[in-house]
Amino acid sequence: MTTKPEPEKDVSAATAAEPAAGSEVRYDTYLQLDKLLSAQQPISHAPEHDEMLFIIQHQVAELWFKLILHELDAAIECLKHDELPRTIKILNRVKQVQHQLINQWSVLATL
Hints:
Layout lengths: L12 H4 L10 H4 L2 H5 L11 H32 L3 H20 L1 H4 L3
């Protein structure tokens, strides 16, 4: 006999990022902004203004792809446990991310 796992608690975004008691989490530290904002390293010999757009556009796309894979893994796990409402919620999120991913290419068209 298999046991069904307990459903995940529905934790809002506001409470999901709350620091442990007695600790403080800063926005810039939590998001590792120092690493994120230093990841754009143009390689052109003469500074090319549009290169920064190209790099950022593609880095953002890669982050969206990473999120899509993360969400699809979660959806698969939910399906394994017959958690259809949660699966639908996750797949709707994937759909919205896909829209965002597609729509962001209009910025690159300004090159």
